[in-house]
Amino acid sequence: MTVRSSKSMPGERSTSKDVRPVDLDEVDRHILVALHADARMSNTALAEHVGIAPSTCHGRVRRLQEIGVIRGFHADIDPAALGLSLQAMISVSLQSNARGKIDSFIRHIRRRPQVMDVYFLAGADDFILHVAARDTDDLRSFVVQNLNADSDVAGTQTSLIFEHLRGASPL
Fold this sequence. Notes:
Number of domains: 2
Strand order of the largest sheet: 4-5-3-6
Strand content: 15-25%
CATH class of the largest domain: Alpha Beta
CATH architecture of the largest domain: 2-Layer Sandwich
Order of helices and strands: EEHHHEHEEHE
Shape: elongated
CATH superfamily of the largest domain: Lrp/AsnC effector binding domain/regulation of amino acid metabolism (RAM) domain
CATH topology of the largest domain: Alpha-Beta Plaits
Largest sheet: 4 strands, antiparallel
Helix content: 25-40%
């Protein structure tokens, strides 16, 4: 497992030089698996689940946060409950002469309310955007107005998401 060695604001990009391996014992791993399943678990319940004292558990969770293993606790909001029933992954390729504008593209696209996540890639595509929209018309408008209208964007490919199934803990 690797983590960022320096603290950054949520959503900031980290580079490979910010990464270092961390040694975790079995108790740390059990804590992480439990929090991955339920980040709202109380410290007392977590300590009982892992089999350690609450004060020890609190100290370990705080340490895991300080060293960057736990980056935050987040609400998993269902876009459909907000009227955004259509989700898609959009692959984006920039023009070869736009490579110097990557940071400005990221800043611009992250401001769009439809954008849930931005993945900066190596390979044929430069980015994958996870977006949520009301319907196909809303999605089409997003692509046309925010991507196709941008002269720095060479091309896009949109894939609709039928279902998002959360993966297992990375441990």
